[in-house]
Amino acid sequence: xxxxxxxxxxVILIQLADPSVPYPEMTxxxxxxQDPDFWFPAHGVNAGPPKAFCVACPVLDNCxxxxxxxxxxxxxxxxxxxxxxxxxxxxxxxxxxxA
Length: 99
Description:
Elements: H1 48-54, H2 60-69, H3 84-98
């Protein structure tokens, strides 16, 4: 199905950040502050080790909430103990339940 736009290019607005969910306040003791590259494993590389560090992180819940609310800013890497694929699945399931 095509949408008539009168010859004009349609404009699609994508919200890049959700201001209602603040970025987690970091204390400096979080594991992700020590080696940022560790949290962005290459495609196909086991993400288990970085996710295991998240379990004991003091900002785990806030980090996860921010990543889920800001999918374009947290598109890659491990955020809140979840991979990109896991966050997308959680969002899809939430949208299905809401429908």
